[in-house]
UniProtKB/TrEMBL annotation:
Taxonomic path: Eukaryota, Fungi, Dikarya, Ascomycota, Pezizomycotina
Chain segments carrying region Disordered: 1-54
Classification via Pfam families: Glyco_hydro_16
Protein name: Concanavalin A-like lectin/glucanase domain-containing protein
Annotated SUPFAM superfamilies: Concanavalin A-like lectins/glucanases
GH16 domain boundaries: 107-451
Transmembrane segments: 87-109
Organism listed in the record: Massariosphaeria phaeospora
Single annotated GO MF: hydrolase activity, hydrolyzing O-glycosyl compounds
Length: 455
């Protein structure tokens, strides 16, 4: 097939892919001129397949027109005539908000109205300017107080004294001569306040490893001069710091009208341990409150209301705290520093025999009897006079300090527990040096009106 030469296109011919020449009568934007100028400067023979994106949409001979809506072009009839239903769009939320505030105010008022406001008579308000032996009694015992505690409590100024507006209860080491050689420590007729001979007699036997109490300490009570049936108690104190110390602020029944412990009850306002805050069971940064009650010592309902409270960014040995109790016919609760910061709360909503969830029989198969059945009251045994007890215990064999934890130097069931504790004194006694005692600034006991002559 013969080749054919295509003649060049003259000026009057139309190139279907060439950019149309602008009309000389039509103004051209500067940007369009610059684009055309840049194209004209391309090297000869260059035929770029792409063009600038800005070239698209430009209509030759037309100015660019904005598509934005201009003010006044859109009609807004709703400005001239409002829909009457629009009022409720704002009104309903506002009305709901007002009703909500009214309901909240009503609930707050009702809550405040229900808060009990009792009248009280002051029974004791002791700032410890001096020791008052008409109110306070120093207990003297060596029997361990039912917990196998290691301290011997004394009535001397070595362990309990008042100075500069403070009551001090401080444990000290026992006389080594009473431990290192065979000894019988008999306090009967020498001020012992215990009822059984085991509360008043201790011995050291170098053969079998038995020793007298390795520590002396203090335990005092208000049984003689200040007891209440319902009311309030506040003790402002700094608790001790030191390994194996056991400080306690608590109450016992004055007459034990329902029988031996725990039939007549016990109120623990605050108990702690002197070990530091790393102690797994809780050291001097933890207090616990509880009620003890039950048909016998092996069936104690303390576990249903035992509550712990941790000090906030401090310990109970670093500064003074107020340990409080409020006790009425309907409830009993303990608190820390303020009544708003409750620790343990027990409402007398059911009889304590049911509340304690006691078994039908003891471990020997003997049927357990309800010691409060005859009263028909939900408050029993906490419906009698109680007095205050302050003490610093040391050690013990009842599990308050768990075996094998934190280097505990004795075993609770060990035959030589006291001796093992004594022989480790080079470990624990140095921890008592800085704050190994309880400091009490104030004790306040208030009787609720309507009882014990308070009107």
């Amino acid at each position: 097939m013969a080749s054919q030469t295509i003649p060049p296109t003259d000026g009057g011919a139309s190139d279907p892919i060439a950019t149309p020449a602008p009309d000389p009568a039509t103004p051209v934007e500067s940007s369009q001129v610059s684009r055309n100028t840049s194209k004209s400067k391309e090297a000869p023979g260059t035929n770029s397949p792409f063009t600038s994106s800005s070239d698209y949409g430009v209509v030759p001979g037309k100015y660019f027109r904005s598509r934005r809506i201009k003010k006044g072009e859109v009609e807004r009839p709703y400005l001239r005539r409002k829909d009457p239903r629009e009022f409720w769009v704002d009104a309903i939320p506002i009305i709901g908000f007002i009703i909500g505030l009214a309901i909240c105010g009503l609930l707050i008022w009702d809550g405040v109205r229900r808060v009990a406001h009792h009248k009280y008579c002051e029974v004791l308000n002791d700032n410890f300017t001096s020791w008052d032996d008409k109110v306070w009694t120093k207990e003297v015992e060596v029997g361990g107080f039912g917990n196998g505690q290691f301290e011997m409590t004394t009535n001397t100024n070595e362990n309990v004294w008042v100075k500069d507006g403070l009551l001090i209860i401080k444990p000290t080491l026992q006389d080594e001569q009473l431990i290192e050689r065979n000894t019988t420590l008999d306090l009967r007729g020498k001020g012992c306040t215990g009822r059984d001979w085991t509360d008043c007699v201790a011995t050291t036997n170098t053969t079998n490893g038995t020793i007298v109490n390795p520590v002396r300490s203090g335990r005092i009570n208000t049984k003689l001069g200040a007891s209440i049936k319902f009311g309030r108690v506040e003790v402002t104190a700094k608790l001790p710091a030191g390994d194996w110390l056991w400080p306690a602020i608590w109450m016992l029944p004055t007459h034990s009208k329902y029988g031996e412990w725990p039939k007549s009850g016990e109120i623990d306002i605050a108990e702690s341990r002197g070990n530091n805050r790393t102690y797994a069971q809780g050291g001097n940064d933890i207090i616990s409150s509880t009620l003890h009650f039950g048909p016998d010592s092996e069936n104690d309902g303390w576990w249903v209301n035992n509550v712990k409270r941790q000090a906030l960014h401090t310990t109970f040995s670093d500064k003074y705290h107020t340990f409080g109790l409020e006790w009425t016919e309907k409830y009993i609760f303990t608190y820390l520093n303020t009544r708003l910061l409750q620790v343990a709360y027990t409402h007398f909503a059911e009889p304590f025999w049911e509340y304690g969830q006691f078994p039908l029989a003891d471990r020997n198969g003997s049927r357990l009897e309800n010691p409060w059945a005859h009263t028909g009251s939900n408050t029993s045994p906490f419906d009698q006079d109680f007095y205050l007890v302050l003490n610093v215990g040391v050690g013990g064999t009842n599990g308050w300090f768990k075996d094998g934890k934190a280097g505990k130097p004795w075993i609770d069931r060990g035959r030589t527990a006291k001796k093992d504790f004594w022989q480790a004194r080079h470990q624990w006694h140095p921890t008592w040096e800085k704050q190994g005692w309880m400091e009490v600034k104030n004790v306040k006991i208030l009787q609720q009106a309507g009882y014990n002559g308070c009107k």
